[in-house]
Amino acid sequence: MITDRPTILVSGGAGYVGAHACKALSKAGWLPVTFDNLLNGHEEAVKWGPLERGDILDRARLDEAIKAHQPVAAMHFAALTSVSESVSDPERYRRNNVEGSRTLLGALLDNGVNHIVFSSTAAVYGTPELVPIEEDAAKVPINPYGETKLAVERLLEELARERGLTATALRYFNAAGADPEGEIGEDHDPETHLIPLALSAASDTGPALTLYGDDYPTPDGTCVRDYIHVSDLAEAHVAALRSGAGFRAFNLGTGTGASVRQVLETVERVTGSKVPHWLGPRRKGDPAELVADPSRAFEKLGWKPALSDLETIVDTAWRWYQSRSAEA
Question: What is the pLDDT of residues 51-62, one digit of tens each?
């Protein structure tokens, strides 16, 4: 299908971050073509361009979609993302995340598409020695999920060197929030992220929240994370399409951390309800503090988060949560 708008192939475009990126692409003048097996994505989230249903391990299906839409570039979100599941089934994660990416990249390059933006993660760093974390920090993942993302980054770097691929890896910190206009939001099954779990607990539609440890070396004893609004992440992907060559990697965060207790306090303030919670043991491998140094992305991509204060993140997530509850 040829259109008057340049086409971007978006693998995993029916998922949480991918769908927000599709909206940002459409707003910026591109036509996003979602390629998704809908295992974890949602067909109703594909609103800004066509859906091609398929798996990134299926080379024939990829070739078919690329030939039909002739994309000028790709965004790659399709991946399995549960840390705990990656520990219990590492081979599944290696096959889907690494071999699937290899298959996708082969299809793109063989069909003349040599520009990709890759959804990576702060999990490539493991437990950092210094915070905030710079892109050049040691990469020692502590779970198979982080290992698979780092393996794909290394593959991108190799293909940039050997086949002229232009590739940008965007290392997210904690993606959160929902589209401010309410068109899309976070909808995982099962849900593992703190903010939606806290919202469901506050609204009495879900169980009490488990607070995993309160004896970390942080100001209030709970883990500190760098929360970045999902719409800000989407805008960073659009910015990455417009600049650079070769292989580059950027942290996407705010440079400011918030503790679990600070998140709960914000949820209580926004919802007007207490968040029922109980204290559980620490989770194995949870670093005390993960905060980005995003200055490289600010400088090189010309990007800065606009919606990533904690109040706005929680407010947009709460409005999305309420709209979904009303539909149920």
Answer: 999 999 999 999
In the predicted model, is pLDDT for residue 3 greater than 70? no
- Candidates 93, 125, 145, 172; catalytic one: 145
CATH architecture, range 7-175+228-252: 3-Layer(aba) Sandwich (3.40)
C-alpha span between 39 and 14 (Å, rounded):
10
100-121 in b/e form (b: 16+ CB < 10 A) is bbbbbbebbeebebbbbbbbbb
Crossing angle of the two packed helices 310-327 and 194-202, in degrees rounded to 10: 60
pLDDT digits over 127-161, tens only? 999 999 999 999 999 999 999 999 999 999 999 99
Of 21, 20, 16, residue with least CA distance to 237: 21
Instruction: Say yes or no to pLDDT of 244 above 90.
Output: no
Mark whether 125 is an active-site residue.
no
For residue 167, what are the β-bridge partners? 116, 247
Tokens at residue 163, please? 């086949």
The CATH number given to 194-225+256-327 is 3.90.25.10
Q: Residue ranges of the domains in the chain?
A: 7-175+228-252, 194-225+256-327
